[in-house]
Design brief:
single chain, 395 residues, alpha/beta, Rossmann fold, AhpD-like, 2 domains, 8-stranded mixed sheet, 8 strands
């Protein structure tokens, strides 16, 4: 993933989605990386241009082992938007990320289209407690506190039922830079945004987990009381890292809120080649696209330019239909037209765009009615050819 130097720190980021869509910037929690948003982003792909980044000292972003305040982390986010040429964005963050976007909305209210605060607080007592945690991690690393942390982050039912989902979260936490984690702890301990919450002018959604011991619902209510345009959602059977434990529900609430504050979106036109190329790589994968471009040669080069600008820039870049819908439409058309190669090309991208195997199965059953049994029969075989045994993970 690319990096941009902001405030003397190299920040790792990922920006993908239709070139004509509003930008949604997502800020990660303490001890995680931008990958914590994978499940949520899958449900919003193609409707918003999604910017994810690793907070300084986390993931692939550099650490600056100097005094750090929440305002510094907010300045990192605003600086990243500046560097990418993004004048305004919808901001969302969880835990530390929620604190970061609060501070950003206070510092630059004109930049914020809407604000979503998940499992977070405006004040987290006490500075001594956070200082002690920072000292522990500096001395022993994050592995010393990983079990206690995961116990707060997820409900017991989720920990028992989804070990595969926990594994990468655990690995990222243990890999977190000691100094980066400690500086973030100190920033939380010194933070008190409560007196300035009234400066937040953007429509605000606060999402809390009913079973969150780290930032319980009372902290969400305190935020709502301080922000003039705040509304609150309480997720049942959810602890702290609710975007990982309940990505579909989180994305549903976030998406509905964003759509209400999205404003009219026009069809795209005259899209630069670079924008179409970014959309094409985001959907089909950079390796496939690079192979196609390299193999085009002089004769087919103009064709690659045309489909990149038109199909991927103007059509897939039009945010009025989310990428999940476009994937379903594309697969249905390829079944009806008998285009095996193109159908197989779009199966895995469809799954990445939020189509699950049950929905894919239902789509193919419907094509049997409208495109014919032989066409659907072939499509079921093409899915098996592409996914192998993974095709049987549908419920």
């Amino acid at each position: 993933m690319p990096q941009i130097r902001v405030n003397a720190v190299d920040l790792n980021y990922d920006l993908s989605g239709p070139s004509g869509a509003p930008v949604l910037a997502l800020s990660n929690s303490l001890g995680t990386t931008l990958a914590m948003w994978d499940g949520v982003a899958a449900h919003l792909r193609g409707r918003y241009r999604i910017l994810r980044y690793d907070t300084r000292g986390h993931g692939a972003s550099a650490t600056r082992d100097a005094e750090t305040r929440i305002e510094d982390l907010a300045a990192d986010l605003l600086g990243l938007l500046d560097a990418l040429g993004i004048a305004q964005a919808h901001l969302a963050g969880l835990s530390l990320g929620g604190m970061t976007v609060q501070a950003a909305a206070i510092a630059a209210p004109e930049r914020v289209l809407s604000l979503t605060l998940m499992a977070t607080a405006a004040f987290m007592p006490s500075a001594q407690t956070w200082g002690e945690r920072a000292a522990t991690v500096r001395a022993q690393g994050t592995a010393a506190i990983v079990e206690a942390t995961l116990g707060r982050w997820f409900t017991p039912a989720f920990r028992d039922a989804a070990p595969a989902a926990l594994a990468p979260i655990r690995e990222a936490f243990i890999a977190c830079d000691r100094a980066g984690y400690a500086r973030a702890c100190e920033a939380i301990g010194a933070m008190d945004l409560r007196p300035r919450l009234g400066r937040i002018a953007a429509p605000t959604l606060v999402i809390a987990g009913r079973e969150d011991p780290a930032t319980p619902p009372a902290m969400a209510e305190e935020i709502c009381a301080g922000i003039p345009q705040a509304e609150m959602v309480l997720l049942p059977r959810a602890a702290h890292l609710l975007a990982v434990e309940h990505p579909e529900a989180t994305a549903a609430h976030l998406g509905a809120f964003l759509d209400r504050h999205r404003g009219p979106v026009a069809a795209t036109g005259a899209v630069p080649l670079e924008a179409g190329l970014a959309n094409r790589k985001a959907v089909l994968g950079a390796a496939h696209v690079e192979r196609s471009l390299a193999a085009a040669g002089r004769f087919a080069g103009p064709w690659q330019d045309f489909i990149t600008r038109t199909a991927w820039g103007e059509v897939w870049g039009d945010p009025r239909l989310p990428w999940k819908t476009r994937s379903l439409v594309t697969l249905a058309l390829m079944v009806a037209l008998g285009r095996e190669e193109e159908f197989k090309l779009h199966i895995r991208p469809a799954l990445a765009n939020g189509v699950d195997l049950d929905e894919l199965q239902a789509l193919l059953l419907q094509t049997a009615i409208y495109a014919g049994v032989p066409a659907a029969n072939g499509a079921f075989r093409w899915v098996r050819d592409t996914l192998g045994e993974d095709a049987d993970t549908a419920s």
